[in-house]
Amino acid sequence: MGVMRRLLIAGxxxxxxxxxxxxxxxxxxxxxxxxxxxxNAPSFDGHQESTFAVIHPMAPFYSLLIKVNPENPSDPTxxxxxxCVGDVPKATDGGTTYTFPIVKNAKFHDGEAxxxxxxxxxxxxxxxxxxxxxxxxxxxxEMVESVKATDDYTVVIKLKYATAAFVPALANPYNWIYSAxxxxxxxxxxxxxxxxxxxxxxxxxxxxxxxxxxxxxxxxVEGLPYLDGFKAIIAPKQSLRVQAIRGGRADxxxxxxxxxxxxxxxxxxxxEQVNVQESTWNCNLSVSLNHNFPAFKDPRxxxxxxxxxDRWGGSKYxxxxxxxxxxxxxxxxxxxxxxxxxxxxxxxxxxRDVEKSREEARRLLKEAGYENLSFDLVNRxxxxxxxxxxxxxxxxxxxxxxxxxxRAVPTGEWFRSYRExxxxxxxxxxxxxxxxxxxLDLANNLSIDRSPQNYRxxxxxxxxxxxxxxxxxxxxxxxxxYMRDFEKGILDDNAHYMxxxxxxxxIPHRSYVKGWKVSPSHYLGQTLVDVWLDK
Amino acid sequence: MTTVTNIEPARLPDKKTISTIVWRxxxxxxxxxxxGLILVGIILVAMFADVVSPYDPxxxxxxxMLTAPGSEFLLGTDQFGRDVLSRVIYGAQTALFxxxxxxxxxxxxxxxxxxxxxxxxxxxxxxxxRVMDVFxxxxxxxxxxxxxxxFGSSTEIVILAITIPMIPNCxxxxxxxxxxxxxxxxxxxxxxxxxxxxxxxxxxxxxxxMAPYLIMFTSFLGQAILAEASLSYLGLGVQEPTPxxxxxxxxxxxxxxxxxIWIAIFPGLAITLAVFAFNIFGDAVRDTLDxxxxxx
Lengths: 535, 296
What we know:
A: alpha+beta; Dipeptide-binding Protein, domain 1; Dipeptide-binding Protein, domain 3; 16 helices; 20% strand; B: mainly alpha; MetI-like fold; flat
């Protein structure tokens, strides 16, 4: 185990320890939590979106069937019921059937009762989306055979095969429970409307400016939430978000700040006024090369571009100015299946000798006939870490004679360009997952006809077969070996995908914000049910 | 007997060389002259950026990130370790290229439309001026933002976005001058001699509205540089890592405003200096070319 990895795990453990200490305090009721969000939501439908700009302001409006344990959101194996009753049920029928009893006191904010039909309709909307509805996480549910409400308060989920990956997939924080009747009337209704059954009901939405929520008195968990309400303030510029916390207009930002901003806040407000929670992050910054662009059909060109990047050097310096830090492959760097630093160094693009790496890149480009390659790099118009990474990458590619022109566009257009219209040559992308589970997390590298999140647009049946073996493996060791083979096939042999660096989560917040605990994902634990203000 | 009489030769007026004209103008417009010199300096720096710039403006050099101004980096470095002086120098290229191109096309198209509108009059004039009214009803930056948001943010689109709001302004000013010229007898004479519309407009009217045209052109230069900087600052202009003054004011400049103030100060100064110089120089040109102001 590398030193870096040990440090990461120690850091995560320290965070959990701090969280445990905070838990001892008695929560207080009342107050409004103000938080800043660094992006605009492309739509309101969590089933179709995969950005913090959706989940941070809107997760408090919705319930889930099951969720990560709020007491320990860093644990990828601990789950609790939200609208189901009791503990998360164990599988029956050889691990292929899950039966969920549903609570009887849950209501939507418009007064409609929530029952098993709503749960089943919502999960079907995610797992088997109707025509014309995008479900970006559909590939995570390949093991699911059916989801049915057997009566008003029972949901039965049948799997095609037993797999430990199912429960973490089900606990995905985007699997919001919608109203079955509304989905039936219009499967895209939730793209432009917000009516959930979460702890907070919608106050108002000011497009591009803010979302407000007020305490839902009929919330199905007695005694919660603690807050009277919240206000999510949209502020794409990081400097504004830092100033908002510094000036008291916001209490917290749930995504992450770079080390410099943390230091500025502590310097300005004093260590007593600021708490810092830190964690490794199940998010990586990547480059997606559109395999339909003529130059990128050639694996030699794709490999040359990854060889040009000095990841080890970049990590050292970029971690000072950006929220990126950890060098890693496709598998989350803290996971037991992940490659060690020594193993990574054997993969092109991870070599320690960057000059040798760039020499090989130039050779491959020459061999492929693309010595003067130029392309358009679509990027998200968000500084952290996208534009910083984009600017750095262009400099790295310039060193092998490749000219990339950056085109930073708003979040909605950025998503559309590589997800829907495919009108891009190369794009700075990010893969952020919620609960750490390599089998689920890497599903977006399956062939395009199996995974809508394969934005590179390739088909590779050999690799699909390796993935399938991993998903159906009966032992952890066997699954891990297949996933490592899959990783090598993606990063090395075919250079289908380019991981740049993994992110590092750093949340400095006002010390009176209590009950919120950092996790390896900025998607987890955002319902604000347990958050309270010690004012 | 021959009588020789000394006859004083008649004194010819001083020969007006370009240098004499320039010198006299400098004496009459000292502020304008100083600003003209500044502009010449900026133009020369932009033209010879690859000679005067100490470093590659796009070269990431993390070993020197956020270095304060000193002997190695005169204006310091930004968060990528890039030399701020080199980026300011190359930023002049971006500013002047976009500024001159937008100002030229904006004022030229405005000139043609303004003179044509005044000359033809009637329905053409009426409709064209109402179209101009529509454009002039919106602030220039709003039109520019709308264009860039719709069509993207390439350099060509940025130039177009800055050019379009300039056209009605120039056309309106030029038209008012051209309306007076249209009534002068030589235009009627040209018409009665059977000259075509294009010849009358280009040969007889356009040269007579050059004064307001030049005034508009010089004032547009400053406006165009400011507009380009504004769009870049908003992330809608040229993109990183291209050196551009407005772009240098966002991102790192905001993030490190307190700890590395030089990242924001120097591109800000460059914008101020260039816009100030273009505006004062434009005023001086106007004072010289406008007969009413000249008599004062």
